[in-house]
């Protein structure tokens, strides 16, 4: 999580609490409350990209070797990737605190 | 000046909306409806109004479409009543907090159950806390004028406006009505150019999450905006007077100058109550009337000024607030007075539910109760007037 900016005066909020900066959600790491996280078995992975395509939080991106890896800062642990993976290469395991 | 033409009020309201050059109209015309959106759909269909008319699957969707469209920086309109307004409920709070200048005309009707299609203020009073500017008309001409006023105010204050007119009693009556000349409307309501809007070329986020660290501040900002809109509202009426010759103010008074018993009322029943005032005045009784044209933001100072030195105030509510200490208007007035030094006795009636007639004689009887409780407290928080025991 980024450091909390603390309280902001109501006078400084843009009208309607609009956020005027595009793509700002990158700064807000929402993955810290998941209870399960996806773990990839590279032996089984065929790099088909189904997990990347279907991840609702767009947490997946390709690494240098072409594997799709979930960025746990944004993954909420929904398990869609594990359930869609045609090779059963993704397992949901309990997030250790 | 425009010509006075006999028109059904709903049709005239729709014509005024069209004159305001709305871009998007979304509506779900379930029974009971008025001819407001029906006439607008005809205008769009006939090519007389260049607007998108979105036929949605519910009122919830109607207001949602207006919210989305308004966020893209266009002028929007919807109209509803009773159950339809209740179905919009969650979106009402979103429209105001996102500061979207949507204009909605509400044909005030009672809410189910029992099923009713008749007039009272049971629907609109449920949205008194929703952060909208809310105005109430007494007749068709005023309803039309409040529509023009609504667009001017909404886009200056960046808040949604609900214009109220009594269902059936006002919406379906044929009245001589003067619409403004188009040229005057265009001057009064210039093209809408918001500072921020949803635009792919310059992306922004509308409707983000408000974590506990920011929600309070976001709501405070809305609260202040609504309070500050008072000045915009009054100024817009002054500007309207210049182009139309018709003068409007937040609180309308009738023979209140030296009144000892005052009556507070909203909507179309006012005209009947005026007759009761005239009759009682002929008998030498010092009675007067005041009507809230502006309900939100509550015109506290205008109200205190208007009541003068009355000894008792008869507050006639058109809605119930079940299980509370008064009708919605009664509660508001008791609260407002407690912050002031004025202490008139309050006699709160709830009358005219679901189109039940309230006659001149009924108003005279209510005024008489005002005299009865001028020196001693009324033994009730509120009374449902005329209920059959």
The CATH topology name of the domain at 34-97 in chain A reads Alpha-Beta Plaits
User: For the largest beta sheet of chain B, what order do the strands appear in spatially?
Assistant: 3-2-4-5-7-6-12
In which range does the helix fraction of chain B lie?
25-40%
The strand line-up of the biggest sheet of chain A is 1-4
Radius of gyration of chain A (CA) equals 17 Å
Helicity range of chain A: 10-25%
Protein structure class of chain A? alpha+beta
CATH architecture of the largest domain in chain B: 3-Layer(aba) Sandwich
The pair of chains with the biggest contact is:
A-B, 21 and 22 residues
- Radius of gyration of chain B, CA atoms, in whole angstroms: 21 Å
Helix/strand order of chain A: EHEEHE
H/E element order of chain B: EHEHEHEHHEEHEEHHEEHEEHEHEHE
Proportion in β-strands of chain B: 15-25%
For the secondary structure, the number of strands of chain A is 4
Average of pLDDT of chain B? 96
Shape of chain B: globular
